[in-house]
From TrEMBL:
GO annotation terms (biological process): cell surface receptor protein tyrosine kinase signaling pathway
Pfam families assigned to the protein according to its UniProt record, in alphabetical order: PK_Tyr_Ser-Thr (PF07714)
Protein name: Tyrosine-protein kinase STYK1
InterPro entries in UniProt: Kinase-like_dom_sf (IPR011009), Prot_kinase_dom (IPR000719), RTK (IPR050122), Ser-Thr/Tyr_kinase_cat_dom (IPR001245), Tyr_kinase_AS (IPR008266)
Localization annotation: Membrane
SUPFAM superfamilies noted in UniProt: Protein kinase-like (PK-like) (SSF56112)
Origin organism lineage: Eukaryota, Metazoa, Chordata, Craniata, Vertebrata
GO molecular function, one term: transmembrane receptor protein tyrosine kinase activity
Organism per entry: Callorhinus ursinus
Record's bilayer topology term: Single-pass membrane protein
Parts of the chain that traverse the membrane: 24-47
Positions of the Protein kinase domain: 113-379
Length: 421
């Protein structure tokens, strides 16, 4: 507070003093000013955070996905074969319109067993194993049922129907998991797939580390020659996708299903579908970083050569019986690691020939990586002289939680058959 005497002389008995209460003006001004500055800083931080999220790979080893390359206009869904009517405004009318297109695939719900065994929680909802009664009731067929999670809005229903039509559009290939039918006349919506009962390759590889007898008829041993055998089947599936101007985008042992005769089937076609309908890779789709090629990590347009890179990681997974890639690198440090031109060292269980193949997949520039066709013929040649006797062995057992942390993947994406043996 400041006091000011107003023209007083010494003889004055009374003198007027004016008090100026500056704090009444200054303190609120300072408070308002500080508040505005704080607000501006918060806004700036928020905008910067949003931009960083769009520009850089996501947190915890999982990346949003960049645009795609090499897709034709038609294959990108602008005239392709996935026709989910977008103009429908209610779920009921959408189901009515689409049921016609999916008529041949419809399976009456009463042909499905009510007993559902959940095997996974998938991207659209739970994934179950159940029985389908067609023809001979004594011989039901085991199928995998993907259910759209409820409650589902118009957008989710459109997306799920689109996924079913995508499988229909792809058609049959022995190394892709096959669509068996669907139930889409009313909610809840189901997609029915052939049951590849032995489950995913990653769980299989982990089980190969154990010296166990299993009841499922599958021999949990793997030789170098068998690694090439599985690898060639995966390449066949990728070539099939490439012929349709598609790529997989998430090639990894967890996305390969394996049968008792070592037939391999590529699954996890969600990203290929999204690229097919949108012509670009949606930022919402998350993919573990350690399997991604540098161009994907840098959010540049992606294509089949990104699958070639991931195929090299898949070879590493097989030959190490399911070790996490780059165990010494934190998932979020992978781009920096690759920018220093560092790749994984040759695992002790890996021959120089196989390591040569991996290294060719991990060339920084996409152009210098082999095409699927070249890779396929190199694998064929390598398989001729590969060891078919020595069983790959890794003494350490896998702790799935630790694996998930080192690999940079969520526990949800692990199928985890391993633990039930
Ligand atoms: N046909 C199948 N037979 C046996 N197991 C299957 C089958 N389909 C899926 N699974 C199991 O469910 C897991 C997840 O499958 P998938 O990746 O196809 O599901 P998703 O989450 O719906 O993926 P996407 O959205 O990429 O299609 C697989 O790793 C496997 O363990």
């Amino acid at each position: 507070m400041a006091r000011k005497l107003l023209e007083c002389s010494l003889s004055d008995k009374l003198c007027v003093v004016r008090e100026q209460q500056y704090e009444i003006i200054i303190i609120p001004t300072i408070l308002v000013g500080t508040f505005l500055i704080l607000l501006a800083v918060i806004l700036w931080l928020f905008i910067r955070g949003q931009r960083a999220q769009q520009q850089s790979p996501g947190l915890q080893g999982i990346a949003p996905v960049p645009p795609s390359r090499g897709l034709s206009w038609e294959a990108a869904g602008h005239g392709g074969s996935v026709f989910v009517p977008l103009k429908e405004t209610s779920v009921e009318s959408l189901l009515r319109t689409t049921t016609h297109a999916l008529a041949k695939l419809q399976v009456p719900r009463e042909q499905l067993s009510e007993v559902l065994e959940q095997i996974h929680s998938g991207s659209c909802g739970a994934i179950y194993r159940t029985k389908m009664y067609t023809g001979d009731p004594a011989k039901p067929k085991s199928v995998v049922l993907k259910a759209l999670k409820e409650p589902a809005g118009l957008h989710e229903v459109q997306d799920f129907l689109g996924r079913i039509q995508f499988y229909q559009h792809l058609g049959k290939h022995e190394n892709l998991v096959q669509l068996q039918g669907c139930c889409t006349e009313e909610l809840p919506l189901y997609m029915l797939l052939e049951d590849v009962a032995q489950g995913d390759l990653l769980s299989f590889l982990w089980t190969c580390r154990r010296d166990v007898m299993t009841m499922d008829g599958l021999l949990y041993d793997l030789t170098e020659k068998q690694v090439y055998h599985i690898g060639r089947q995966v390449l066949r599936a990728l070539e099939f996708l490439q012929d349709k101007h598609l790529f997989h985008g998430d090639v990894a042992a967890r996305n390969i299903l394996i049968q008792s005769d070592l037939t391999a089937k590529l699954c996890g076609l969600g990203l290929a579908y999204e690229v097919h309908v949108r012509g670009a890779i949606p930022a919402t789709h998350i993919v573990p970083l350690k399997w991604l090629a540098p161009e994907r990590l840098l959010l540049r347009p992606a294509g089949i050569k990104g699958d070639v890179w991931s195929f090299g990681i898949l070879l590493y997974e097989m030959v190490t019986l399911g070790a996490p890639p780059y165990p010494e690198v934190p998932p979020t440090g992978i781009l920096q690691h690759l920018q220093r031109r560092k790749i994984m060292k040759r695992p002790t269980s890996c021959t120089h020939t196989m390591y040569g193949l991996m290294k060719s997949c991990w060339r920084w520039s996409e152009e210098s990586r082999p095409s699927l066709k070249e890779l396929h013929s190199r694998l064929e040649i390598a398989a001729r002289t590969a060891n078919d006797k020595a069983v790959l062995q890794v003494p350490e057992l896998v702790v799935p939680e630790l694996y998930a942390a080192v690999a940079g993947i969520s526990m949800d994406s692990l199928s985890y058959n391993y633990s039930v043996l």
